[in-house]
Design brief:
By secondary structure, the chain is of the alpha/beta class. Helix content is 31%, strand content 22%.
């Protein structure tokens, strides 16, 4: 990998902020909802801004939210934002659009959900460390609950071994060349995945599970906001 003058990889972080928030039952993008005195997006960007390992931030969002994202970045002094670009129909399309805005200097690309405002620098740096070693990494935490596979009639079909199950979070990190190839392959083969790890897995590349944090929740439903406020006080 190329190195900066600080002998570190150049890290670009894509912030996926194009969600519609339908499960939040809100009239606006959930990233503009507030807890602990700031919008969700402001919390997320502030952590990325203060993380010394991150060199640039690229926000990808819907057309109607571009100005709102710009206003938050300016209000909260987020100087690492180099681009706010237009998302696509699906999250996968949005990330592919954002990859075009990543600096040519980037060695590592992180992809983070804007709606995960409680990510910590420790989680981020552990992802970067594992990408440096393995080429691809994502934070995860062991599943606490027993999970069941259901058949088409809604009956339990199987009980997976919980010791091998993880809840995968973001930021997911990859070498720049790898994640670009993964998205090119997805387009060429009409692949659709719920996260970027899936696309990388389709190339036959293994993704290392790095250290996650149970507090690194995704703001999805109304009860997540008071929970985020509670967790925020413990960070």
């Amino acid at each position: 990998m190329k190195k900066t003058k600080l002998n570190k990889p150049f890290v670009s972080c894509i912030v996926a902020a194009a969600g519609k928030g339908s499960r939040m039952q809100a009239e606006m993008n959930k990233i503009f909802l507030e807890f602990a005195g700031k919008p969700v997006l402001a919390h997320t960007l502030s952590v990325l801004e203060s993380c010394r390992a991150i060199d640039e931030i690229v926000i990808v969002t819907s057309e109607c939210d571009i100005l709102g994202c710009k206003d938050i970045a300016e209000e909260f002094g987020i100087s690492k934002v180099t681009s706010i670009t237009l998302g696509g129909k699906e999250r996968q399309d949005s990330v592919r659009n954002a990859l075009k805005e990543v600096s040519p200097q980037a060695d590592i690309v992180l992809i983070h959900d804007a709606a995960r405002p409680l990510v910590t620098e420790e989680v981020i740096t552990d992802v970067i460390k594992n990408v440096t070693l393995c080429g691809a990494a994502a934070p995860g935490v062991p599943c606490k609950n027993t999970l069941k596979l259901a058949d088409s009639d809604g009956f339990i079909a199987d009980t997976p071994d919980r010791s091998h199950l993880y809840e995968i979070q973001t930021p997911q990190g990859f070498s720049r060349d790898l994640i670009v190839r993964a998205h090119e392959n997805a387009v060429a083969n009409n692949l659709a995945g719920t996260d970027d790890c899936f696309l990388v897995e389709q190339l036959g590349t293994r993704v290392k599970i790095s250290q996650g944090d149970y507090r690194n929740i995704k703001i999805t439903t109304p009860e997540d906001l008071p929970l985020a406020e509670l967790f925020y006080e413990t960070l």
